[in-house]
Amino acid sequence: MSQLLVEEELKQALRKIPEWEMVGKAIERTVEFDDFLGAIDFVEQVAEIAEEEEHHPDINIRYNKVTLSLSTHDESGLTSRDFEVAERIDNLME
Q1: CATH number reported for the structural domain that contains residue 44 in this entry
Q2: Does the first or last residue of the chain, that is N or C, have fewer Cβ atoms within 10 Å of its Cβ?
Q3: Within a domain: 43
């Protein structure tokens, strides 16, 4: 099981994923697509990553905008797993 990251670790981890921001005890990113189907295709790719990692983001879809939120619920905060999944999701955008 992963341990919660301390403040300095969080700062370092956030530098690697500049599109994400801290929101309470989670990290979030919103991605905008040309249309609804583009958003759904992206969510399907995120779902594959989540299943592989056994770590699932909260996902909010608003037509062509997808907001992802990652937190380790068992630890009530952020662990290295959240940042690993965020980096894999960012790789989808390259």
Answers
A1: 3.30.1360.20
A2: C
A3: yes
Tell me if 1 is assigned to some domain. no
For the entire predicted model, the pTM comes to 0.94
**CA atoms in the 13 A half-sphere facing the CB of 45:** 14
Task: Count up the domains in the chain and report the number.
Answer: 1
**pLDDT by residue (tens digit) across 27-54?**
999 999 999 999 999 999 999 999 999 9
